[in-house]
Amino acid sequence: MFNPLIAQEIVKRVNKYEKFKKENKKLEEELKEYKDCGMMQNQENHNLSYKLEQSQALNRELVKVIKEYKNFIDKLDLDDYMLEQEYIDTYLTDITDKVLAKTEKVIE
Predict the structure, then answer these.
(1) Would 8 be classed as within a structural domain?
(2) pLDDT of residue 98
(3) Mean of the pLDDT values across residues 40-61?
(4) Is residue 14 situated within a structural domain?
(5) Angle at which helices 85-107 and 4-75 pack, to 10 degrees?
(6) How far apart are CA 53 and CA 59, in angstroms?
(7) Residue 65 contacts by C-beta under 8 Å, 6 or more apart in sequence?
(8) What DSSP letter does each residue of 29-94 carry, written as one string?
(9) 68 located within any domain
(10) Predicted pLDDT of residue 86
(11) Measured between alpha carbons, how far is residue 90 from residues 79, 101, 104 in Å?
């Protein structure tokens, strides 16, 4: 026997379920977007962390080069400075090339 009140209640519940299903799908899509953003943020953080490590390594290398340069200057006899100018220029060029090469690696 067909009862219109029961049929009406079933239609209400089906409509409510469909509405819930749409909202749930929307929330799942939003959650996926947040997860994707989180993964991208994690990757960006990883990249920044890697660049920071590379920068710190470069800084350590630069400190070594500066100390090497300072030791080199300390060993120079200032009277011989003019005689050794070409040697000094070559040495400084070599140091500069080392620093630039290391810097370019970090920038890449």
Answers:
(1) no
(2) 75
(3) 85
(4) no
(5) 170
(6) 10
(7) 95, 98, 99
(8) HHHHHHHHHHHHHHHHHHHHHHHHHHHHHHHHHHHHHHHHHHHHHHHS-GGGTTTTHHHHHHHHHH
(9) yes
(10) 67
(11) 19, 16, 21
Number of domains in the chain: 1
Is residue 39 domain-resident?
Answer: yes
The C-alpha atoms of residue 97 and residue 102 are separated, in whole angstroms, by 9
Quick count: other Cβ atoms within 10 Å of Cβ 8? 10
Residue 17 has pLDDT above 70, yes or no: yes
- State the residue range of the domain holding 59: 24-107
Q: Choose the weakest-confidence range: 20-24, 25-29, 59-63, 89-93.
A: 89-93
22-45 per-position pLDDT tens digit: 999 999 998 888 888 888 888 888
CA-based torsion, 95, 98, 103, 104: positive or negative = positive
